[in-house]
Amino acid sequence: MHRSSTFSIWCLILVWVLSPGVVEAEVGEAEKDELTFGFIKLTDMAPIAIAYENGYFEDEGLYVTIEAQANWKVLLDGVIDGQLDGAHMLAGQPLAATIGYGTQAHIVTPFSMDLNGNGITVSNAVWQEMKKGVPKRPDGKPVHPIKADYLKPVVESYRAAGKPFNMGMVFPVSTHNYELRYWLAAGGLHPGFYAPHKGDTSGQIDADVLLSVTPPPQMPATLEAGTIYGYCVGEPWNQQAVFKGIGVPVITDYEIWKDNPEKVFGMTKAFTEKYPNTTVRVVKALLRAAKWLDEDANANRMAAVEILARSEYVGADEEVIANSMTGTFEYEKGDKREVPDFNVFFRYFATYPYYSDAVWYLSQMRRWGQIAEPRPDAWYDEVARKVYRPDIYAVAARELIREGYMSAADFPDLDTESGYRPPQTEFIDGITFDGSKPNEYLSRFPIGLKDEVL
User: Fold this and answer.
1) Using alpha carbons only, how large is the chain's radius of gyration in Å?
2) Coil, strand or helix at 272
3) pLDDT tens-digit profile of 343-393?
4) With CB atoms counted within 10 Å of each terminal CB, which end of the chain scores lower, N or C?
5) For residue 150, what are the domain limits?
6) What is the pTM of this model?
């Protein structure tokens, strides 16, 4: 549904009424009301689909078209050149673009789309070798989490036979790339360095495991063809491997880093400055969708599954999508386990754009050489503040509280929140992440760059 904008110039203004301990916001009407958003066919695009299907965009005076994109580069280029007004993005994309790794453009995010949601899958043949070393429960099923320690002898046997061990990830600055690298390195396997200052963006320097890009929907077919022996991807493409009987998800990212940030909603800085009211209204609609997805202990998830299964969204079987979206996850065929937080869209303040989340991604870019030279801690903070925009988020949150759609308890304390989470400890390698001390964090990894330049 579309209509022409009839809004007056005065609608550009955000009016603030301040009183002790209370902030009320009256957000003006949208400066641009016809919008096009992009996404990749993954279940974590759900907030966009739900905001559309439940009428939350229209409640904000926004008339939105949603378009699936062929891959992450096409999606990013569409946002940069204005064909798309915003998009479901890899969290690393706005950061990489803003610092000039790959495409140079100032992209910002006022909204974090979800926590968790990814898995690492290996071929049946690789799993048969891995499982020989994996401890078993009394019922014979593997003990989780399954570390890359059990993959290491398999990789070594391939290398001894002169065969490279290839795995897929979705994009060089994707969470999937960093999570797969994190898991491999925690098990003593080197995932390779980048050296962009030398013209080497393969990410395979000194690698024990060779990682390459494969678009998410093509992962299962590429695995089945034997081009790769495993991959890290979001849903439903791990569960699709189980459904088709071609692979076994061995670990979820929830087990690599509990409640890790995943996708973001990205827009150009120029768009947010030209259309500030529109931007806030987009965030309001996405917040309502995220809350709907998580409320009442995931009671709405099957309704969400039906929507996501449609061809215009993810386009996978409802059974496959439901495997993860409804709080379970199937590893080896028949080994379905309760993982209620596999997909988190709202609880645990999932939607808040924390600076520390941005710093973690930047730390991994540095760890693997995408940031070629060491940077001071202050640089990480500066970049995080350029890209992550909790100020915009706070305007949207306060308006939703004022309107009665949400309560203050749904959000961090918007007046005092620093943007930095407390130090996070629940990583598979036991290394604590303190976003205020990225260089100290990097110094603790046995595998990865620290002060050196390749």
Assistant:
1) 22
2) helix
3) 999 999 999 999 999 999 999 999 999 999 999 999 999 999 999 999 999
4) N
5) 118-260
6) 0.94
